[in-house]
Amino acid sequence: MKINASRSSSTRLDRSRHAAPQVFEQLREMILSLELAPGTVLSRADLATRYGLSQTPVRDALMKLGEEGLVDIFPQHATVVSQINVTSALQAHFLRRSIELEVVRTLTEQRDAALINRLRETIVGQAELLDLKNYEQFSLLDQAFHRQMYKAAGVPQLWDLVRRLSGHIDRLRRLHLPVEGKTMDVVRDHTKIVDAIEQGDVEAAQEALRNHLSGTLNQIDQIRTSHPNFLADD
């Protein structure tokens, strides 16, 4: 599979900003959403044409994607969207779980009513999308839910760190999201987390979080069966 350089839907760039970070951000989101599936060939020349740029910022963007393990770069040959590395996904999950267990502990001790209201509003937004199967917007609200918690706990930079390291597990979650009942499970999990925070129950909040974050990893075998060419173990 090869990316179509003639597409124009994602090529707009803010000319007041450096080009390479914008190309990186757009390609990264396309990879995480699986719009660019594992195995897609990314031609530097085609991307330069698509974005109306020289090849230098495109090369820089691809190198940064390579640093995150989202593309495999074969010098003088091709750049290919990488398979989903299960080992990397497991490590990213371990890191995120470790951090967020402390995040929910902090929030449960604070019991900030304004934060609780904001989190519930985000859950309502997700619930409204259940019947629409708008997985892209649902995923954005899922990220917003967790980002709000990191910010309220005073560790927003750790959210940025987790996001940088979560490319493989994010793609697993995106494959899992359309499975029947998964989006409802997410809404239910988020509600349990917020209920426990509001009640000041640290143990319940942490248990709800553990269950929430482990849902996709418990389905790896099924995801592998459905998408055998997308996953790699190392």
Automatic annotation (TrEMBL):
Note the superkingdom of the native organism: Bacteria
Q: What InterPro entries does this protein's entry cite?
A: GntR_C, TF_FadR/GntR_C, Tscrpt_reg_HTH_GntR, WH-like_DNA-bd_sf, WH_DNA-bd_sf
Enumerate the UniProt keywords alphabetically: DNA-binding, Transcription, Transcription regulation
**Is Transcription among the key words of this record?**
yes
Question: Residues in domain HTH gntR-type?
Answer: 17-84
> Which Pfam families does this entry report, sorted A to Z?
FCD, GntR
Q: What is this protein called?
A: HTH-type transcriptional repressor RspR
Which organism is the protein's source? Paraburkholderia metrosideri
Q: Which gene codes for it?
A: rspR_7
